[in-house]
Amino acid sequence: MTENLEYVGELLWPGEVGHYLLITAFVAALLSAIAYAISNTDQEDSEGWKKLGRYSFYIHGISIIGAIVILFTLMLNHHYEYNYVWSHVSDDLPFKYMFSAFWEDQEGSFLLWTFWQIVISVIFIKVSSSWESSTMWILALIQVFLSAMVLGLVIGDLQIGSSPFNLLREENSSEIFQNANYLELIEGRGLNPLLQNYWMVIHPPTLFLGFALCSIPFAVAGGAIATGKYTQWVNASLKWGLWAAGFLGVGILMGGAWAYEALSFGGYWAWDPVENSSLVPWLLMVAAIHTNLVAKSVRRSYKFTYVLYGLSFIMVLYSTFLTRSGLTAESSAHAFTSSGMEGQLISFILFFVGLGTWIYFARGKNIPSNHDEEPFWSREFWIYLGSFVLILSTVLITFTTSIPVFNKIIDMVGSVIGQDLSSWHRTTPLDPIAHYNRYQLWIAVLIGLLAGTAQFLRYREKNYKSRFKIIGRDLLLSLVISIPIAYIGLRWVGGQGAGYVLLIFASTYIFISNILYLINGFQLNAKKLGSVTAHAGFGLMIWGVMASGLQKTYISTNPFVMRELVADETMANQNILLYKGVPMRMSNYEALYYKDTLVRNERVYSIQFTEFDMEGNRIDSFELHPTSVYANDFSEVVSFNPSTDRRFGKDIFTSISALPPEVMSVTEAQKREDEMPYEEYMIPVGDTIYLRHQIAILKGLNYNSFQPDYVPDSDDLAISADVLVIDLENNFTYLAKPTMVIKDHRFVVHYPDKSNETRVKVRLGEGFVNYLYPKDEDLEYHKVVMQKGQTVPFDPFMITLARLEKDVTHPEYEAEEGDIAVQAHLEIRNKSGILIDTIKPVFIIRENQPNFIRDYMPRSGIAANFVKIDPATGNMEFLIGERPAGEKRYPIRVAEDVPRSDFIVLEAIVFPGINLFWIGSSLMMVGFFISLYLRRRKKLA
Amino acid sequence: MKKIHIAGIGILLVAIALIFSASQDFSTYASFQDAAASQGQVKIVGELAKDKEIFYDPAVDPNYFTFHVIDKDGVTRKVVMNRAKPQDFEMSEQIVVTGKLKGEEFYASDILLKCPSKYKDEEIYLRAETEE
Prior knowledge:
The complex is a heterodimer.
Chain A: H1 13-41, H2 46-76, H3 83-88, H4 98-102, H5 106-127, H6 132-148, E1 153-155, E2 158-160, H7 168-171, H8 198-226, H9 234-262, H10 273-298, H11 302-324, H12 342-363, H13 379-401, H14 403-417, H15 432-454, H16 464-493, H17 498-518, H18 529-550, E3 553-554, E4 576-579, E5 584-586, E6 589-599, E7 602-612, E8 618-624, E9 627-630, E10 637-641, E11 643-646, E12 650-658, H19 661-664, H20 666-675, E13 679-683, E14 688-690, E15 695-702, E16 717-727, E17 732-736, E18 739-743, E19 747-751, E20 753-755, E21 760-764, H21 769-772, E22 780-786, E23 791-794, E24 797-805, E25 820-829, E26 835-839, E27 842-846, E28 849-853, E29 855-857, E30 862-870, E31 875-882, E32 890-895, E33 903-912, H22 914-940
Helix pairs in contact in A: 1-2, 1-6, 2-5, 2-6, 5-6, 5-8, 6-8, 8-9, 8-11, 8-12, 9-10, 9-22, 10-11, 10-13, 11-12, 13-15, 15-17, 15-18, 16-17, 17-18, 18-22
Chain B: H1 3-23, E1 29-30, H2 32-37, E2 42-48, E3 65-71, E4 76-81, E5 94-102, E6 105-114, H3 127-131
Parallel strand pairs in B: 1-2, 4-6
Antiparallel strand pairs in B: 2-3, 2-5, 3-4, 5-6
């Protein structure tokens, strides 16, 4: 219907170029994969094929980066004709959030992932060049699938990928596209305010870098095995595996930090499907690194290592599927919508499962395997056990996380056999955190005991009895030191039951034994530093998990509020109400909400906390600033950002959980204002209104100072009344400044003033319109003739005709073709010569007829009409209007017993020992990088 | 058979046992009728009854929030929660509440909302509208 419309202002060529670049990228990746694959088999021209593969890959990389640059430039320049730009950018979005907007949605995040794969692959070609041919065909195949995700090709009914360069008018149907000039009318939707956060800038790139790195060890090992290099790959895969575990781990931790710092659920880990599905590849990567060490040291477990690397990569793909298929929407707090590309994602997964399995069975039989048994007290045996435990952990996590997938499969089976099997559906556990913790606790116990002991064991141990003479002392010492420390720890974290006893012991043991191992024989050994750091870090992390989890306490409970209704122990009160300026005691703290300020689209609430000890002495005081986040158009509050006081021993976490309804939404505020029980009083200045609990005195009218929410604008006509509210009983006074504004001489805006302390709200009656914009019949007009520059008395003022302007600024004047218009500037001064107002009436000759536009200023109460110009004499004739004399009464409206709206509902949680979690988990990641550094140094030496 | 194989099989058996035990935690979506029959906690999936009262007045009690849910059988019950009202509650398409029935009222300890993303299915903003 709108096919033939010539749209105005659309910039279409970048989208077309971008689209062709994506197609080029796809084809080049395919070509690269084929060329690299042939380079492995064609002995004669291996180098030639390899070069072709490499250059095709570079073309692929340049095309993808080109498409990214185009898309980003379109976003920066607000080209709303593109659907992706319109959906994620708005005019007021700051530059720093452009990145977040870029990877907010499917297409952008796939581009980000593809980008990292390219960067890493290019680095790989440079630094691991001897493995280029055998590895790159697999990496190029990954690129084929990834670039297909953003291809946007439609072949018949089949759609391959979704292009970020689709146009808005192709993706949406709206009447607005009937208008050729629709771009003038639209504004981008902008970035979801929840994601306008610096974590959104740094977390996704780190996580996707980790995801991308997970593909390398699989490609190295699988490619090498496929091309007959059965065992030589272990050094290369280990190096890349360490990088992958390090970066993916940091990415996951950043997610936890984001959740803890910026989301209001109060914690760093909630076993959410989205979190789980990034943890599983990491756990498998860690298991693979350990078996890879065994393979490198004792030439065993090549197949096992390959399988683990493969699984880690497959689980990255599965994670992508889970989070983007929309299947987890019922069990995840992160709302992911279906991308419509499930089929494509499944074929991505199946292809690599197939490729991995084929390599395993077709080539795996040639991998030398060691048939003699590993001794029980050998390091390799214990590492295997540890890997089994890690696999067990991933199996349990994946099983529960996959419930929505099982339900989907049940539905599919049901539709095949033609029955409704929905009664077979299961839901995620009622309390998911307790569910996962219950099982993963034992995993952590086993890891602690195994890794604490295995450090002291040697590979291929033949003579464990003599070995024990050397290490026995250290092991015994670890045990002996750990017991009292674990006991103290248990007293602190307060866990009940054998599980917690064992967990605190195991985590103490792994820490102590690793430290002893590091300084074994009183000699610090740099070689051991990487693994010791990672393992000891794990011990610390578990201490932190236990302390912050078991001792997490809600301090936002008021001991003086009794409630008859407590249905369940778990439903203890978690929120407290804080009135502005009223200190409130909660647990052993006192909280005072004293101020709030608006910063961009966030309102920052300042809360002063004072901590008391048991005797009631003040021991500490600090400030917290939780915020509420407004929608981009300020119509409502969409989320709350927490604020945390970070200390060495504990954190105090606060988040707003509710605000008064009228603060939460503009519609609600309007509704409440409309229903407000105002009484109107017609009183002269100086009169007193007697209310139920207070008195209110009209002190005067005001043209200079207004209700604080009102921001004056140049064309506004504004008036406020000074109404002094006096609460005699409480000896409290409040000067209310209810304000009325006429904007652009067109519409009226009220700014009522409310005193929360006296619960009185004051508003100007509609009659005030007559003071801001009186009717002509209410004014007394006098004819005044002036020349330019002349001053005439007009009791009680002096009026000067200061200027005549051709440039008419009067808000009521709408220029028309052929108008001759003049605006006079009449300065009104009082007897002392002080300027009160400048009145600017307009004289127009339109179609040979004189017209005039009145101007009125409420402060002086003077109106002026510019009615005649005598060109011969230069005389200008004005009709000057003034209000008739007499007692003036003003309509003041007052509502009493108005509910307070100056409160916040706050949730405050103390997390003891949470820094142990952050320190411990960060040490684990540092461990990977230390290992990489030490291995590199060894190689260079 | 090597020791490590025995260990491997052992782990496998443990895994099967644990999966079996873990699956005991999985539940089915119950109805209010099931909740009445059961003494323990259940998970109910349903919709918000939009014509019934949604009560949350923080000035009275910041930890008291009630609403009505229609379960999959079409039965409506009042749900009571000791928490603040979640964001965008009125917009929810689907509600999953975990808790137990006491008399006529369902006391929920946990709630999960499925909301249509506000940033997805919206009409195209008109510039003229946003300027007002």
